[in-house]
Amino acid sequence: MAIEQTFLMVKPDGVERQVVGDIVDRFERRGFVMKGAKLMVIPKELAEKHYAEHAERPFFGELVDFITSGPVFAMVWEGENVIKLARTMMGATKPEESNPGTIRGDYATTVSHNIIHGSDSLASAEREIGLFFGEDLV
Ligand code: DGI
Fold it and tell me: Which residues in this protein are found as Phosphoserine (predicted)?
């Protein structure tokens, strides 16, 4: 398995609840390496590009409003199989399916305010890292 990079982001609810440190700690303990990080408020245009695949969904407006509602902590993490393993550590999108011990299973009870975003494929990881960090990685 090749070394990969993925884009992870603590959403506004996670920043507000002060779980950034715990989330960073989980990925560090697992053995992944942080390659970029920034606290930022996402401009609406960037949010719409980031979530473009959901543009036709009924919850798109709500999704963009939420993700731009306060600071997020955007990160790039590197390691073997990190895209898939980070998704496992995040837990499922639906709260009734996210197991205790996962980030969402420990902190989230709703599908919309679910603490963390993580790329779901190599193509999305490359696209999202480009959108948020460009070449700006260590
Ligand atoms: O990759 P995920 O974040 O696990 O899930 P996704 O790509 O299917 O959806 C992206 C985000 O959109 C998700 O984290 C929360 C939001 N979302 C997904 N399904 C629903 C939703 N928001 C609302 N309000 N209702 C939904 O059914």
Answer: 124
- Report residue 40 as tokens: 């930022």
Distance from the alpha carbon of residue 110 to the mean position of ligand 1, in angstroms = 10
| pTM as predicted | 0.96
- Is the CB of 97 within 6 Å of ligand 1? no
Residue 117 catalytic? yes
> What digits encode the pLDDT tens for the residues 19-56?
999 999 999 999 999 999 999 999 999 999 999 999 99
Ordered DSSP codes for the chain: --EEEEEEEE-HHHHHTT-HHHHHHHHHHHT-EEEEEEEEPPPHHHHHHHTGGGTTSTTHHHHHHHHTSS-EEEEEEEEETHHHHHHHHH--SSGGGPPBTBHHHHH--SSSS-SEEE--SHHHHHHHHHHHHTT---
The DSSP bridge pattern shows strands 72-80 and 116-118 to be unpaired
Reported ipTM: 0.93
Pocket test for ligand 1, best of 72, 111, 114 (most atoms within 8 A of CB): 111
